[in-house]
Amino acid sequence: MPASSSNETMSKIATGPAAPGVPKTDPIIVADNVTRHFGGLMAVDVEHLEIQRGIITALIGPNGAGKTTLFNLLSGFDNPNTGKWSFEGKALAGIPSFKVSKMGQVRTFQLTKALSMLSVLENMKLGAKSQFGEHLWASIFPWTWRKQDDDIESKALELLARFKLDAKADDYAASLSGGQRKLLEMARALMSDPTLIMLDEPMAGVNPALTQSLLDHIVDLKRHGMSVLFVEHDMQMVSHIADWVVVMAEGKIVAEGPPATVMKDPAVIDAYLGSHQGTDLGVVTGRIDLPGTGKDKGSK
User: Fold this and answer.
1) Cα–Cα dist 110/75, whole Å
2) pLDDT tier at 3 (50, 70, 90 boundaries)?
């Protein structure tokens, strides 16, 4: 990305220079002092993080950086030790995942959660919100929810066609390949008409033949007005589709900015390219002092 384009991206997304915790012009998620530890291991230690609305944000970092744990916290699948965060201005700390989903924030998983012995179409229909037939008394009287069920099925078939899974609609989900399951999970997430969709390593385990299709669908989510936050390790892919990149290391946010800016950051180079193999990432996070200075890099 040219420098002028990178600067333009900065002005549209952030209200200050690229740095960990920089305020955004229109944040959809705002998190403060979020920590999660498991025994003596501090998995997440995020002082401040804002996720911009209407763009594709990539969350990157080495294995064990705390990316999936942060996803679990933000989506209600885990509870923090400290901290708070909001989605669309509504406090979410302590809210269970099913309520978070109903509010318009949905997620997918690195290991897909398709129900294998249900058909692809049945898996899709499960993703729709506020189904009348789910209530005990209404379920006894099919005429009260039949029209809604037909509408849900029509919507599911439209999404399956969009994701090129319509030919598999009546097949068991167990028959799908790994990449097709990723597509199914992404399509099912859209059944709830989310405002924000969170994708945990959408390319993991996917056959290269389906990679471009998945990339196109992620970009398409933005075109349809959704905000996207995704975890990924493939830096080339991140640089091609992400508008903004957030870097984690040892549970902390160590860098933020447009892809072209972040890829030049020493924290990212150390984590991914190994150009400073002798430098511990603890220097970046403030856990270890810089030699001979008594000051940590994270305090600058």
Assistant:
1) 14
2) very low
Q: Which of 19, 17, 31 is nearest to 229 (CA)?
A: 31
Residues contacting 141, CB < 8 A, separation 6+? none
pLDDT surpassing 70 at residue 89:
yes
d(CA 179, CA 61): 23
Q: How many CB atoms lie within 10 A of CB 289?
A: 14
Beta bridge partners of 52: 27
Q: Count other C-beta atoms under 10 Å from residue 61's C-beta.
A: 26
Which tokens sit at 70?
């942060």
| CA–CA distance, 258 with 256 (Å, rounded to integer) | 7
- HEC-encoded secondary structure of 7-51: HHHHHHHECCCCCCCCCECCEEEEEEEEEEEECCEEEEEEEEEEE
**53-62, 87-96, 252-261, 283-292: which has the minimum mean pLDDT?**
283-292
Give the pLDDT band (50/70/90) at residue 167: very high
Dihedral sign for Cα atoms in the order 185, 191, 197, 198: negative
What are the structural domains, with CATH classification, of the chain? Answer: 3-114+194-299 (3.40.50.300), 118-175 (no CATH)
